[in-house]
Amino acid sequence: ESYDMGGHDTYMHKEIHEQADAVDRALRGRIDDRFSTVHLGGLNLDARDARAVRRVKILGCGTSYHAGQIGAQMIEELARIPSDAEPASEFRYRNPVVDPDTLYIAVSQSGETYDVLAAVQELKRKGARVLGLVNVVGSAIARETDGGIYVHAGPEVCVVSTKCFTNMVVSFGLLALHLGRIRDLSVADGKRIIEGLRKLPAQISEILANEEQIEKLAAEYADAKSMMFIGRVRGYPVAREASLKLKEVSYIHAEAYPASELKHGPLALIEPAMPTVAIVPDDDLLEKNRAALEEIKARSGRILAVAHREQEKADHTIVVPKNEDELDPILMGIPLQLLAYYTAKAMGRDIDKPRNLAKSVTVE
Ligand code: AGP
């Protein structure tokens, strides 16, 4: 992409709208229909190495950490390898046990975030195998890792990450499919995921075409002093990322909680002045998610749902297109990027350069 604004008022808006093309680029040349898998040229991990992996540990900061949380779920679901994500900034200070059978993955847009780089260096010193999932080609983290995947989001200028997050999650989908097909994911499931990946660019365009509805909703909710974001399992990291986006760009306080944890405390916060954004995918947890909406409604909470069909308990629903269950998180956060953008715009915020934040944090 160029730095030409092409009619957009901010880089954030421009970058949100570049996502269909960016995802298309992340997929291009990587899908192998013959074996229902993908080619990831720079991974530097042969089939024997991939089969020997016992755990996956993903490290990143902020938005990249949230992408890693979705990635860990994808790898666990598709490749059946126990996986989790942790903020690199925490990992590096807790003297972690470094396990030779664990595959470590460092996630970073800039490839220069000091906390991630320091975690990679510590892991390398202890003999671990570390891959990178990075946007900026030739960056420090890309150079320090043993191999990896470039996410090909193109230059991201806005301090607040949008298109890079989406491409990171798509790249994790590719990696999960690759590891899965080396291990026990069937040809049929491989094909199913490939078909889902191919649908993404058109589905992203469909979501972005609904921008007017989201602009109106932003006006409706911009008076909130605080907002709750909830999701369950696949939806939880989506809720966390959406809450971070809103905080960063609008300065509205936002909390993200697993919907399943509401009754263990945060339900006490629910009242009309504390709206909830709920991630409600049409998957095997739909009824559980609907039960959470009922709990909130019973306390007079306002609800904005992001779902695959209208939710009666919600005051408003943003309907997004359905993909394969495992890939739904890629799409469900996109309208909430626009919600954050329009909320910040209504409040007159400095959208591309929120106060106190830098695009890459290269210091401790
Ligand atoms: C994203 O909106 C943030 N500004 C921030 O959380 C960012 O994702 C984080 O600092 C990590 O940056 P990186 O991806 O360049 O490593």
What's the structural blueprint in terms of helices and strands?
Elements: H1 11-17, H2 19-27, E1 31-32, E2 37-38, H3 47-52, E3 55-60, H4 62-79, E4 83-87, H5 88-91, E5 102-108, H6 114-125, E6 129-134, H7 140-144, E7 147-150, H8 163-182, H9 187-208, H10 211-221, E8 226-231, H11 235-250, E9 253-258, E10 276-280, H12 286-298, E11 303-307, E12 316-319, H13 328-332, H14 334-346
Parallel strand pairs: 3-4, 3-5, 5-6, 6-7, 8-9, 8-10, 10-11, 11-12
Antiparallel strand pairs: 1-2
Helix pairs in contact: 2-8, 2-9, 4-8, 4-11, 8-9, 10-14, 11-14
The structure holds 2-deoxy-2-amino glucitol-6-phosphate (AGP).
Description:
The chain is an alpha/beta fold and 364 residues long. It is 44% helix and 16% strand. It is built from 14 helices and twelve strands. The strands form three sheets. It has a five-stranded parallel beta sheet with strand order 4-3-5-6-7, sandwiched between helices. Helix 4 (62-79) packs antiparallel against helix 11 and helix 11 packs parallel to helix 14 (334-346). The model has no long low-confidence stretch (mean pLDDT 95). The structure holds 2-deoxy-2-amino glucitol-6-phosphate. 2-deoxy-2-amino glucitol-6-phosphate is lined by residues 61-64, 108-110, 113, 116, 159-161, 248, 357, 360-361.
Radius of gyration: 20 Å
| Fraction of residues in β-strands | 15-25%
Q: What composes the largest sheet?
A: 5 strands, parallel
**Which runs of at least 5 residues are low in confidence (pLDDT < 50)?**
none
> Helix and strand succession?
HHEEHEHEHEHEHEHHHEHEEHEEHH
Helix count equals: 14
Distance between the termini: 31 Å
The percent range for helix content is 40-55%
Which molecules are bound besides the chains? Answer: 2-deoxy-2-amino glucitol-6-phosphate
Task: Determine the mean pLDDT.
Answer: 95
